């Protein structure tokens, strides 16, 4: 597959482009994201779907400038897909031909069910492990849903209700909400009862914007919207308020200016579908149709899904920033051995070994930015970019372990900002200490054969090498409990 691939998504409301760069066989990262609110569907819904000339000109100009970015970043491959507006337009072919001949960009119109599938593929591969859920992607012209069972996409559906469609057909004409709801309810009757699910995955601008508002209103400690989860019942009053607000009310509720003209429309669709599906938890996905289209190309021989042990962010980090992967894997093995050996003392649940292992693999990635304070560089890297394949709780714990894997244990004040996402202080201190001890044992980078035993309040380290440097570093470590360490 190409080193750099551009994915363009022409929706009813916006044209968006994402450019991905591969770092190894399956790992990649985003290097550019560009959006233009071309509103290609503007005016079309009152004219039987016919795309209007001003909107077509805006879309063409945006695609022309997307082409310059593609050329500037030396992309090897371009995939351009179009959804509801072009799908419905009688004059779509004329626009597609013009773009092909003048810009050398080939637009492929995809069906609504394919659009739903792409969104679900993006969410499944980018989020933490998902077993059973329903994805919902509220777009400008249509809304897509996909049912996930046992980690597999089993069914998709597309509904002709979208934010721009509702705006032009109803909101702009001041039609009462009751009639709008009746129109939406007629459409959502097509959703099978089997789509009912406890967990809902939100894709698309409306639901991401809603999540951002909730994060701000609740003083959520992280800024990353991808992976943000909330109990839907706790915020139904906010959704209701947005639906019934005027522009000033939207501003007071925290809605961004660029969402004033579509947020009410999106929320009334969400409100209606929620009543139908009775979902309780919302999981926000930063990945959608563009990521799904890219992954379907990348993973075409692997059923469009990463293997269960593959974590995109972890592999991408290691590809780009790891200086000594063999040493880090050694430190991971030693950390796990220490965790098991000291389990009678710390009593931490077994599942925390996973985050400990990831922290060991990534503890020094910040060195690529600079050696001094590299643990702080690593902390910020992880806090802001370890997004794909990890929950927020996992990400902040891994970041905290790395920040304090020096001669200091994290204190209560260090954890205050993130306390709602972290385990208890004793658990964090123990995991931090174990990582520090494992790193100290490999001070000479010889990856010595090692064995541990614990009895009579003493940890015995049996090593084939002298571990001279390790002895000095271990003496400086602050332990989370009273016990002795002996090296033989």
From TrEMBL:
The keyword Hydrolase applies. SUPFAM superfamilies: Actin-like ATPase domain, HD-domain/PDEase-like. Residues 313-467 form the Ppx/GppA phosphatase C-terminal domain. Keywords: Hydrolase. GO terms for molecular function: exopolyphosphatase activity. It is an enzyme of class 3 (hydrolase). Its EC number is 3.6.1.11. Residues 19-299 form the Ppx/GppA phosphatase N-terminal domain. InterPro entries: ATPase_NBD, GppA/Ppx_hydrolase, Ppx_GppA_C, Ppx_GppA_N, PyroPPase_GppA_Ppx. This is Putative exopolyphosphatase. It comes from Sulfurospirillum halorespirans DSM 13726.
């Amino acid at each position: 597959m190409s080193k750099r691939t551009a994915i363009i998504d022409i929706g009813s409301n916006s044209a968006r482009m994402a450019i991905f760069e591969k770092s190894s066989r399956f790992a990649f990262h985003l290097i550019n994201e560009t959006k233009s609110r071309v509103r290609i569907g503007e005016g079309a819904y009152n004219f039987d779907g016919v795309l209007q000339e001003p909107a077509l000109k805006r879309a063409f100009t945006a695609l022309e400038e997307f082409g310059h970015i593609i050329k500037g970043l030396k992309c090897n491959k371009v995939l351009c897909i179009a959804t509801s507006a072009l799908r419905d337009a009688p004059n779509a072919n004329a626009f597609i031909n013009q773009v092909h001949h003048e810009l050398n960009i080939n637009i492929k119109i995809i069906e609504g069910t394919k659009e739903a599938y792409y969104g679900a593929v993006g969410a499944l591969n980018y989020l933490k492990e998902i077993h059973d859920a329903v994805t919902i992607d509220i777009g400008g012209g249509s809304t897509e849903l996909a049912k996930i069972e046992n980690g597999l996409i089993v069914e998709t559906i597309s509904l002709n209700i979208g934010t721009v469609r509702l705006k032009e057909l109803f909101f702009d004409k001041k039609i009462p909400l009751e009639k709008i709801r009746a129109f939406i309810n007629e459409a959502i009757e097509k959703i099978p009862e089997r789509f009912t699910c406890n967990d809902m995955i939100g894709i698309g601008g409306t639901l991401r914007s809603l999540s951002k508002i909730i994060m701000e209103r609740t003083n959520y400690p992280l800024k990353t919207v991808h992976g943000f989860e909330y109990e839907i019942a706790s915020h139904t009053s906010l959704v209701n308020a947005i639906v019934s607000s005027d522009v000033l009310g939207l501003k007071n509720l925290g809605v961004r200016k660029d969402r004033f003209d579509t947020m009410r429309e999106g929320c009334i669709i969400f409100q209606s579908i929620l009543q139908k599906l009775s979902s309780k938890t919302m999981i926000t996905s930063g990945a959608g149709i563009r990521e799904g289209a890219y992954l379907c190309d990348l993973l075409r021989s692997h059923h469009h899904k990463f293997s269960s042990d593959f974590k995109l962010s972890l592999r991408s980090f290691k590809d780009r920033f790891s200086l000594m992967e063999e040493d880090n894997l050694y430190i991971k093995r030693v950390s796990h051995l220490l965790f098991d050996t000291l389990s009678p003392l710390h009593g931490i649940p077994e599942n925390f070994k996973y985050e400990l292992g990831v922290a060991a693999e990534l503890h020094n990635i910040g060195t690529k930015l600079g050696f001094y304070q590299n643990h702080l560089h690593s902390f910020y890297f992880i806090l802001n970019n370890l997004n794909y394949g990890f929950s927020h709780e996992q990400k902040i714990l891994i970041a905290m372990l790395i920040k304090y894997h020096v001669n200091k244990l994290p204190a209560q004040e260090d954890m205050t900002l993130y306390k709602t996402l972290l385990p208890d202080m004793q658990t964090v201190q123990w995991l931090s200490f174990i990582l520090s001890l494992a790193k100290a044992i490999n001070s000479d980078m010889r990856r010595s054969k090692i064995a541990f035993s614990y009895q009579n309040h003493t940890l015995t380290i049996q090593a084939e090498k002298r571990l001279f440097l390790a002895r000095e570093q271990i003496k400086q470590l602050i332990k989370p409990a009273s016990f002795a360490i002996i090296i033989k």
